[in-house]
């Protein structure tokens, strides 16, 4: 039996269509207004920061010319025409790159241990003392808010040039950054296992060991691996201020305009970071399931 679809009376249908069009028009006005506000804020930020787009357009050629010079050897030919000449310092650069990786590894490991020790004291569900939580959280904020390159400059002044200032700078910043992430993971755990351990007479440390760690350990390791990726890149930059590693040699090449050396060192760094990113990504995905 054929069914007929009932239609609304003409006045009611017209009223609904008018309401729909008004709603769509109102949404468009809000979107347009939001876009205008965003553009105005960007213009204000650019004006206050004295950004000059005309200067960018006028001098963009110098930027591309720099890359062009990095693609040529000192005597003129393309770098690809003589890879042996291009990577003349490969052995020395790999050793320095190894130093950079060791700096990142040592700084990340010690920083992660520091974050592990502090994170439980910054959580609301494990520590009832508000003053203690406040002090630990402010400490972690201080450690991660000050840029690691500033810490590196301070440590270079204190301990002289070399890898030690870089390791210390990475360690301090990693403690602050991972401490924040670890504490947020702990605050989102299931509290039922902890209540059971407490009811059976377990201490605060027993609750951490048998109630918290089984729930958070994989996330802790995942965040630490992610931080290691970041620190490998950061360790290179720290070398610019004398904190050791390949960064010092890269800074010297930039300062003396050894363009082919710059491109060779950058390629080594990029390939190394890509390999580490790929390896740690696989590990993190396996840990998190």
Q: Could you characterize the architecture of this molecule?
A:
- The protein has 289 residues and is an all-alpha fold.
- It contains eleven helices and no strands.
- The chain has helices at residues 10-48, 53-70, 83-86, 90-119, 130-145, 148-159, 163-187, 192-199, 204-238, 246-255, 259-288.
- Helix 9 (204-238) packs antiparallel against helix 11.
- The longest helix is centred in the first third of the chain and has 39 residues, at 10-48.
- It is extended, with a radius of gyration of 28 Å.
- The two termini are 54 Å apart.
- The model has no long low-confidence stretch (mean pLDDT 87).
Main sheet overview? none
Could you give the order of the helices and strands? HHHHHHHHHHH
- Please provide the count of β strands: 0
What would you call the shape? extended
| Percentage of residues in strands | under 5%
Taking pLDDT < 50 over at least 5 consecutive residues as the criterion, the unreliable ranges are none
Count up the helices.
11
Nearest-integer average pLDDT: 87
Gyration radius, in Å: 28 Å
Helical residues, percent: over 70%
**Termini distance?**
54 Å
The secondary-structure class comes to mainly alpha
Overview in brief:
The protein is built from eleven helices and no strands.
Helices and strands in order, then pairings?
Elements: H1 10-48, H2 53-70, H3 83-86, H4 90-119, H5 130-145, H6 148-159, H7 163-187, H8 192-199, H9 204-238, H10 246-255, H11 259-288
Helix pairs in contact: 2-11, 4-7, 4-9, 5-7, 6-7, 7-9, 8-9, 9-11, 10-11
